[in-house]
Amino acid sequence: MVLEVSDSLLGVLLASVAAVGFAGQFLFVRLGTESGKVTDGVLIVLCCNVALLAPPALVLYSPPYVDLFTPVSVAAFGAAGLAGMFVARLLTFKSVEEIGANLSSPVIASNVFFATVFAIVFLEERLTALHLAGIVLVVAGIAVVSWETAADSSGETSLRETGALLAVPLAAAAAIGIEPIFISIGLAAGTPTLPGIVVMATTATVAFVGYLRWTGSLRSIPLRRASTGWFVAGGVSTTVAFVAYFAALEVAPVVVVMPLLQLTPLIVVVCSALFLPRRLERVTWRVGAAALVVVAGATLVSVSG
């Protein structure tokens, strides 16, 4: 007997896997940065992305592989990799190290706000009432996170310093928000999704290694440290999330996939409270409420796009 699964149900399952995978990245990185360096984490995760994505692409597509690309698609996916996998990931990991996973994830979920702005500016899309309502909710959620960030510092952090702390995850959100613009250009140029993601990951890895060499901080990664294991787990988690996310969009409508994907901040908050030691994460009801508000706002923006 063969169990048949509808495309919508398969999309729900894949989107759920993606949400859990993206949440796992926050949690594993938080554990890794307790004793490891952010730059090591970014490099390990990028290498995991390339190692796990390149072989399937080589198997699923026939040579010559250059026929899969055009100059426009390579440039577009390369730019997406620099923005989303290099800059955004470096800022995300730094934010997780500085203010924690459960405070970082709702702020970074505001990337849908930036994606909407970029789509209006560059793709000439229109702002709808649902878009506006979603943006208001996202901003409200981030305001609560700002309050909690200040409170978490026991009153020792000024408003300006709190703003500086939140500038890092907001910058990460902006970098993630521009990523879909480049991806849409690359896909429109005729390059399939998986080869495009490989170009993204490879470009980001090469650029990050170049950045480390330029800053004089390139060094061998300690393989036997616990932090390395957590970073590898984060790399596997985010790779699975990317594959599941794009696969979900191929079999189910955006209105099915995106609301589930926006559950990532809530999953991070719940898992932080259940599994992470209190010395790493302080989860309050206000953080949970903020995550819920951001999820609602991000969902409205996503499904109305």
From TrEMBL:
Spans traversing the lipid bilayer: 12-29, 41-62, 68-91, 103-123, 129-151, 163-188, 194-214, 226-248, 254-276, 283-303
Pfam families in the record: EamA
Keywords: Membrane, Transmembrane, Transmembrane helix
Family matches, as Gene3D superfamilies: 1.10.3730.20
Domain (EamA): residue spans on this chain: 10-146, 163-302
InterPro entries membership: EamA_dom (IPR000620), EmrE-like (IPR037185)
A single cellular component GO annotation: membrane
Name of the protein described by the UniProt record: EamA domain-containing protein
Species of provenance: Natronolimnohabitans innermongolicus JCM 12255
